[in-house]
Design a protein that fits this description.
The complex is a heterotrimer of chains A (296), B (447) and C (292). By secondary structure, chain A is mostly helical. Chain A has 13 helices and no strands. Chain A has helices at 2-23, 26-33, 51-57, 62-93, 99-108, 114-139, 145-152, 158-183, 187-194, 199-227, 231-236, 245-250, 261-286. Chain C is built from 14 helices and no strands. Chain C is flat.
Chain lengths: 296, 447, 292
């Protein structure tokens, strides 16, 4: 019993230290967001105001930015979980000769700085956009072309942005899901097959619950990763209707060297909420463990 | 199960989004509709930073009516570096907006040699505003080959700003310093009589292009090397003048006449300009016309009370006499060479160089219209801090640019960083500058 | 068709969407970047309109530059300190601690996640507020309470500071991966070990860690690659100074390619970064004895 309590105390102690380490820098952000005269340095506000938060939604398009970010990143997460789920499973169960080079290639590509990749990527997207534009124009009446391209366009369109963000997050997701399926004994599948499971239904009833922690981790990290991606939205969106939260943060940059720290902090606080919420949601999936099933 | 529920939820969101978008889409659809010859052409303009966008939006309605076009303002990321990165990526791919600004005069030569900008010499010279342009603006807008690819429609004027009230109180003369020695002596006097810092020149790597654009370049005209760029495009960096400017820096740093510690860290201008200067711990600094309004005026975080009375300006003295006021271009508009409506865009550009448009920017950004007749505009006259500066523009000097000029800027930042860290002397700083430029641009670039 | 061939085709089909996405948006740009490293292509200037193949010129320039080797060393130290040690230790410990019944678990979760959830721009300013400005910085004020002199932390201990900042930023990622990995260890294994009389320490070193090896490998690989590529956060804090003490390779590229408009030279350095991470990956495979 004593050993248990000591370990428990150690856990609490460590977590508290970590909590302080993580949260202390945010003190500035919290104070600055309600300070009408926020500066770069930590200071107690002489007055409290909600102006910064209000300004995000009234003077600026805060609502629109949030909506766009949620839709885009949410869709990205869905795409990655599905495509990555399928791909990770296949990669785990296959022994093709190209499997290891492919896996290493996609994960090590993360090393290349985005600035090296963005120019070729933009050209690829622009070509795809041209093709999509031709397709849309042949199907949709001319007045709605612009609106349709905003959804389906590759440059300055939701579809392109979602696909690009998905592609950026896919390597990690594939690895996580593949690693997770590697740890999942094939016995479950074979048992299901022997029980006469055919088609996708049974496999999904067995595989997906088994893989849930892996899918959960992949989905969560995809959400957080895509949510924090600045470069893709900034490069590939131009229309005001499409802007995501990063552009909102840049609204705090007024003239050459003056930054509205209060506005920046307020928007940053709001910015972090969905990521925290996603973590809270995904946490349940992360800790599912195996329970019995194949004894004997 | 949960994954399916999440999927359904997302599809519902996407559907809602589609509805919302098509609703707003049809709202603007009629404005920015298909670009066929029958309907109104749309001109897309890139702009960044809220005050500039506000100014542009003020000027647009009249231009739209005048020229029968629809203008769409596209908001780009605020920081200069990100703005330029996105713009250059799009220019390289051929997908850039029709009309945009260059951040600095020094950005233009590289864009010209990349073939991104449409020449507009004929249209500009035929424009009725052309005679009104200051000579400085005309010269800044003209490229090395004599063509005009970008028009400097506004100007940034930089001088030395000082705390008149505090100098008066300490019994120090506020007369215009006549030479560098005079300026240094004044700074020394400030330190001796008040214990505060006497003069700040931006320096160091953290300040980015500021060490060059807001410090070095102000003293070049009055030095033995008035122009850094030779007629043939090479750089005049080995001369005595450059060494003298670094010597000036060294004196200020070594004698502790300017704050050094903040300049070694990130966001180096915050403490000296926004904390020390208003508080009176720093008595003089280089700054520009916008400073009266946005750095220390009623719109700023740490205003100086009664700023137009308490903060005075000195022109920059030459080393052995003479005065200069440093001028650089602002609102440097250029037309995308690959635009679908090149001629129409040129007309829009010239309309943006009108008195009203430039005064709109002046009020919100703090730069100066590059035209003489702006002085007669009522709205401009209401910007009292800027009016006397417009009168003095003719006395201003500027530095020619050349491709690769940003390398010089970075070189000066590194040279002044070494001076800040007391690692070298003026000659050594010059050597650092020359070596850096030669490394990146080739040995032939420096004469 | 036999079972095996059917499964093989099924696998290939499952992979097609991933392959298409990755092929178009990652592999094509990556291959293009490698090609660009042999040219003098740029985003602005004469070379932008007339790019030329220059062979190995970019690489030769790279290898003869003292600054490059310095940045390589700084990067390795940075990766070791923040990714391999800092984030990993904190992340694993947090994952283990949070598996216990802990009150206020959502609070701890949220606190650990926040550093990763805040956008990089804001994270930069947060740490400027903490570390820069001499006596104005938060850290100076805190240590002032125990009598330590206020100082410019980014001047006195630059490398240490950026390691701390990056550790702060990445704990959540390690924790999430470790949590997921720990979940793959069946409970029966722990039960059996406990019934055999193993102590907590023995269980950890001889059961938990070995079973975590694939997850640890994944974490090391991904985190190393990601940390090597870091640019914005550190650039905001130190610009690579003082004197190149924190010039990680991302900042080196930026400084050398004057504002990153030289695509050719920047791509060459990027290719070298790729080679370095491949080498590190091989080291991890050896050390951790994993099969991919």
């Amino acid at each position: 019993m004593r050993q248990f309590t000591r370990a428990q105390a150690a856990a609490y102690g460590f977590l508290t230290v970590t909590l302080l380490f993580c949260l202390l820098p945010f003190l500035w952000v919290a104070l600055a967001s309600v300070d009408p005269n926020a500066t770069m340095f930590l200071s107690l506000p002489k007055a409290i105001t909600a102006d910064h938060f209000v300004k995000i939604f009234t003077a600026n398009n805060g609502g629109r930015w949030f909506f766009n970010s949620l839709v885009t990143v949410g869709a990205t997460t869905a795409v990655v979980v599905i495509v990555g789920g399928m791909g990770g499973y296949a990669l785990s169960r296959t022994n093709a000769w190209w499997k290891r080079p492919f896996l290493y290639a996609i994960i090590l590509v993360r090393v290349l700085p985005p600035t090296a990749l963005i120019v070729p990527l933009y050209k690829v997207m622009l070509s795809a956009n041209g093709l999509m534009g031709a397709l849309v124009r042949s199907v949709v009446p001319p007045d709605s072309t612009r609106a349709a391209m905003r959804i389906f366009g590759f440059v300055d369109g939701y579809l392109g942005l979602i696909l690009v963000l998905s592609a950026m997050q896919l390597p990690l997701a594939l690895w996580i899901i593949k690693t997770y399926f590697d740890l999942t004994p094939k016995d479950y599948e074979e048992a299901a097959l022997m029980d006469g499971a055919n088609g996708w239904q049974r496999l999904h009833r067995i595989l997906v619950p088994l893989a849930l922690p892996g899918l959960g981790a992949a989905g969560l990290l995809t959400f957080i990763g895509a949510w924090g991606d600045f470069l893709m939205p900034l490069t590939f969106t131009s229309s005001a209707e499409l802007q995501l939260l990063p552009i909102g943060l840049f609204r705090a940059f007024q003239r050459a060297n003056t930054i509205d720290y209060g506005y920046l902090s307020a928007l940053a606080l709001l910015y972090m909420l969905p990521a925290v919420a996603a973590f809270g949601l995904a946490r349940r999936f992360l800790v599912r463990t195996f329970t019995g099933g194949i004894k004997g | 199960m949960t994954v399916l529920r999440a999927g359904v939820g997302l599809i519902a969101c996407a559907a809602a989004a589609a509805v919302l978008i098509s609703c707003s889409g049809s709202g603007t659809g009629s404005r920015a509709g298909a670009d066929s010859a029958a309907s109104t052409p749309t001109i897309r303009i890139a702009e960044h930073r809220q005050p500039r966008i506000d100014a542009l939006n003020k000027a647009i309605p009249k231009i739209e009516k005048q020229l029968g076009v629809v203008i769409e303002v596209i908001e780009y990321p605020a920081p200069e570096k990100d703005y330029l990165s996105k713009l250059l990526t799009e220019l390289g791919a051929g997908n850039a907006p029709d009309l945009f600004t260059a951040n600095f005069d020094s950005d233009v030569p590289d864009m010209v040699s990349a073939g991104y900008l449409a020449p507009m010499t004929a249209e500009v010279k035929a424009w009725d505003g052309y005679p009104q342009l200051f000579d400085v603006a005309k010269k800044l807008s003209t490229s090395a080959d004599g063509q005009i690819y970008a028009l400097d429609s506004m100007l940034l004027v930089q001088q030395l700003y000082f705390r008149r009230d505090l100098l008066d109180k300490a019994g120090i003369s506020t007369a215009q310093p006549a030479s560098w020695k005079d300026l240094l002596d004044r700074a020394r006097e400030i330190k001796a009589k008040t214990g505060k810092y006497g003069l700040l020149l931006p320096a160091g790597i953290s300040w980015g292009p500021g060490a060059f654009n807001e410090g070095f370049i102000l003293f070049a005209p009055g030095s033995k090397t008035p122009q850094i760029v030779n007629r043939d495009g090479t750089l005049n960096l080995n001369g005595q003048g450059v060494r003298d400017i670094f010597r000036l820096y060294k004196s200020l740093i070594d004698e502790e006449l300017m704050p050094v510690n903040p300049l070694l860290g990130p966001e180096p201008w915050v403490i000296p300009k926004y904390v020390m200067f208003p508080a009176g711990d720093l008595m003089a600094t280089t700054c520009g016309t916008w400073c009266y309004i946005y750095d220390w005026g009623k719109d700023s975080k740490n205003p100086v009370p009664d700023v137009t009375k308490n903060v005075g300006t000195w022109a920059v003295p030459g080393m052995d006499g003479g005065l200069s006021v440093s001028i650089s271009g602002s609102n440097i508009w250029a037309v995308n060479a690959k635009s679908a409506h090149v001629d129409l865009t040129k007309k829009v550009l010239l309309a943006l160089c009108s008195v009203e448009a430039t005064v709109a920017y002046a009020g919100l950004v703090g730069n100066i219209p590059a035209r003489r007749d702006a002085a007669d505009n009522k709205d401009f006259q209401a910007l009292t801090e800027l009016v006397p500066v417009l009168r003095d523009v003719d006395k201003g000097t500027f530095e020619r640019s050349t491709p690769g000029f940003s390398v010089v800027s970075e070189g000066v930042a590194r040279a002044t960083e070494a001076l800040l860290r007391k690692q070298t002397d003026a000659a050594g700083a010059q050597a650092i500058l020359v070596k850096y430029v030669k490394d990146l641009l080739g040995d032939n670039a420096v004469k | 068709m036999t079972y095996e061939t059917r499964m093989a085709w099924q696998n290939r089909l499952l992979l097609v969407p991933a392959l298409v996405l990755l092929g178009c948006f990652i592999l094509i740009p990556a291959v293009t970047a490698i090609y660009l490293s042999f040219t003098n292509d740029a985003l602005s200037g004469y070379a932008a309109s007339h790019p030329q193949l220059v062979g190995l010129k970019n690489y030769l320039r790279l290898f003869s530059d003292q600054g490059f080797w310095n940045s390589l060393i700084v990067t390795l130290a940075f990766v070791f300190g923040s990714s391999i040690v800092g984030q990993f230790v904190f992340g694993l410990a947090a994952a283990l601690a949070l598996r216990r019944p802990i009150a206020l678990r959502p609070l701890f979760n949220a606190a650990i996640l926040l550093p990763n959830a805040v956008p990089e721009v804001v994270a930069g300013f947060i740490w400027i507020s903490m570390l820069a400005g001499g006596r104005y910085s938060t850290l100076s004020r805190i240590v002032g309470l125990i009598g330590v002199a206020p100082q410019n932390w980014l001047e006195s201990a630059p490398l240490l500071m950026i390691i701390v900042v990056n550790t702060w930023r990445g704990i959540a990622f390690a924790m999430i991966l470790m949590t997921s990995g720990l979940s793959a260890v069946p409970a029966e294994v722990y039960e059996a070990a406990r019934m055999d009389g193993a102590t907590a320490r023995q269980i950890f070193w001889h059961i938990t860690l070995p079973l975590l090896r694939p997850t640890i490998f994944l974490y090391m690989l991904v985190s190393t690659a990601g940390t090597i590529a870091i640019f914005g956060l550190i650039y905001t804090l130190t610009r690579g100074g003082p004197g190149g003490a924190t010039e990680i390779i991302g900042i080196y590229i930026y400084n050398q390619s004057f504002v990153a408009y030289q695509l050719g030279y920047g791509s060459a350095v990027a290719v070298i970064m790729l080679a370095v991470s491949v080498a590190l990956g091989a080291v991890y495979v050896r050390v951790l004895k994993v099969r991919v």
